[in-house]
Amino acid sequence: MTSPLTALTISCTLKPSPDESSSELMSGQLAEALTAHGVTHEHVRAVDHRILPGVGKDMGEGDDWPALRDKVLAADIVAIVTPTWLGQHSSVAQRVLERLDAELSSTDAAGRPILFDKVAIAGVVGNEDGAHHIVAVLYQALDDVGFTIPAQGCAYWNGEAMHKTDYKDLSGPPSAVQASMKTAVANAVHLARLLKQSGYPASG
Asked: Model-level pTM?
């Protein structure tokens, strides 16, 4: 019998705690869906931590990334949720991706990239266009460093352009968003269980 799965959600809102945040809200909804599948969950609000610029595992004194990196490495599933600003993912999300770049040079005992056998999903919120572009950016970066992306492994909400309504202002997630979160999480859990039972082969 395989051991229980663990998950980490990383909210990349620009708003520090305790400010309300649409990215935090979607992260929480994804966490609830993961918990419903029996997955042990932990959450990080990235902006509350000092993640220094760079592409190293540890950028020195005052860098909070090494502790966050440990959480990434401990998780079977990682969900990154970002707001949309000027049609792009947030600068906080970009900082997280840049720090994950260090894992390209990290390998396990079998010579495989250290993030192999881990699954990643994406969430995007914003009252402007850009979700598909942002998901594509996240997918490419996460795949590049070794994560596996499940089928339909994203959820997003685009509010009406030029209006002020945010995801957090809604009475609840629209049915289409709720369905996409449910699918993304279910497929991520399924894939993570398969990879835990039989991971990718050693580099040869």
From this structure: 0.96
